[in-house]
Amino acid sequence: MEQEESAPSDKDTSNTAAVEIPFKELLLRMGRLQQKDNDMAKLAAAIEEVPAKVAAQQALIDGLKHEMEDSKAKGRQYLVEKKSVETELAAVEGQIKKHAGELGAIKTNEAYKALLSEIDTLKVKQDAMESRILEIFDLIEVCKKTETTAAATFEQKKKVVEQQIRLCDEEKKHLEAKLAEEQAARDALAKDVPEEAMERYAKLRSRKGGVALAPLHGTSCGGCQMSLTPGFINNLLKMKDFVYCERCQRIMYIP
Q1: Which distant-in-sequence residues (6+ apart) come within 8 Å of 58 by Cβ?
Q2: In Å, what is the CA distance from 189 to each residue of 23, 36, 177, 201, 226?
Q3: What contacts 246, CB < 8 A, 6 or more positions away?
Q4: In sequence order, what are the residues at sequence separation of 6 or more whose Cβ sits closer than 8 angstroms to the Cβ of residue 131?
Q5: How much is the pLDDT for 19?
Q6: Position 82 confidence tier, pLDDT thresholds 50, 70, 90
Q7: Which residue has the higher pLDDT, 106 or 85?
């Protein structure tokens, strides 16, 4: 059996003397109060979830923006590489032209062949650089198309996401208004409940996962489902004082 702090016995009538409403009505009111508190807890939890929903939507925008900016960055990198290769190509072409002009002044076959070999090596580099420049042109075009597509997608999805964020804000306002209504209704219910009874209720509710009162379901406790003895049920039917389930220690009432 679950061990709890000692609950008032069935003979404890200290609270009954302070009750100005019939005890049955007090229990039913406390049951409705419990439902209000649980409803309010759900509303409060839903309100707390809204910022996370907004953050998730904002993350979508940030992701799309990053994709668009990544395409721009790659395009800029290829432009820098293109300029570098073109500069190097110009230097190679200058060397080829210079060496071609030197051929006529060569005196030996061996030196002539060596210079031709150097020119051939430079021409291989020239071909590779020209091919790379053509590749970079293609890559830049791909980046431009990707950037254009990403920008269009970004603007399109941004509008959808911003609409979702507005809906989240509206949802939050609606939930807050509903919570305020529930709070007012809760305060009205609690108004005539004696302070000592409210203390018992609050203490049990904090220890029992938001369920301080359990209704009678047939012959069982609506909180822990334990079968109750006829004597226990008979005592509950008297509606004279708080009766606690012998297993879960919740306050029992007949709905």
Answers
A1: 161, 165
A2: 14, 9, 19, 13, 29
A3: 1, 226, 232
A4: none
A5: 43
A6: very high
A7: 85
